[in-house]
Design goal:
The protein is an alpha+beta fold and 199 residues long. The chain has one domain (6-198). Helix content is 12%, strand content 28%. Strands 1-10-3-8-6-5 form a 6-stranded antiparallel β-sheet. A 4-stranded antiparallel β-sheet has the order 2-9-4-7. Strand 5 and strand 6 form a beta hairpin. The chain is globular.
Length: 199
């Protein structure tokens, strides 16, 4: 029996429990959508997937197939086992929040990944201890030789996916990033839904 496809609505978040050894496939349904991704240790949410600890462990700014992202206690939590999307997944940038949009000139409330994480975990009766820096799946933030970062459209295409294996019992959370003021969700700046499966 095929695993059910769970929708991450455009501009919104979704979370799920994943047992050690299970895999999660995150699908870029329309091809140009960034999916902010978090993983928290199920038994203690204060242990979570950490970008700064992962970069140290990986000795890279992006993992390759066969490498694991680690927690703030330096334990493997999500192993990258398959990637059809081109392998570009940002580990540098913080989740968007109200302050990011205010700095971009937005004067009214704007959906954001920080609030999406809180809402997604609330559906599971959980509260994040903080908003860790996310693993920004499909996000294309090139770093130039002079150290500058760019904000470019994803290189992934419709239906491309990344498959992750849980190395711990965990809670995973996703946000279909609502950024529509810079072209990280494609040149049209139009956030779309994405999907995932727990396999």
């Amino acid at each position: 029996m095929a695993a059910s496809l769970i929708t991450i609505p455009a501009r919104r978040g979704k979370a799920a429990f994943v047992a050690q050894g299970q895999t999660v496939r995150v699908i870029n349904t329309h091809g140009q959508q960034v999916v902010d991704t978090w993983a928290f240790c199920r038994e203690d949410l204060t242990e979570f997937m950490s970008m700064e600890h992962s970069r140290t462990s990986l000795r890279r700014i992006m993992p390759t197939v066969g490498q694991a992202m680690v927690t703030n206690r330096r334990r493997p939590i999500l192993m990258l086992v398959e990637d059809t999307s081109g392998g570009i997944h940002d580990t540098l940038l913080a989740a968007c929040d109200r302050y990011r949009y205010e700095l971009l000139g937005c004067e009214e409330y704007h959906d954001n990944c920080t609030d999406n994480l809180a809402a997604a975990l609330a559906e599971l009766d959980l509260t994040p201890p903080e908003t860790p820096s996310p693993w920004n799946l499909f996000m294309n933030i090139p770093v130039s030789a002079d150290g500058r970062v760019g904000f470019e459209p994803p290189v992934s295409g419709p239906g491309d996916h990344i498959t992750l294996r849980a190395e711990l019992d965990c809670v995973v959370a996703f946000s279909a990033c609502p950024q529509d003021m810079v072209p990280i969700n494609g040149v049209d700046c139009t956030p779309t839904e994405a999907h995932f499966q727990v396999l």
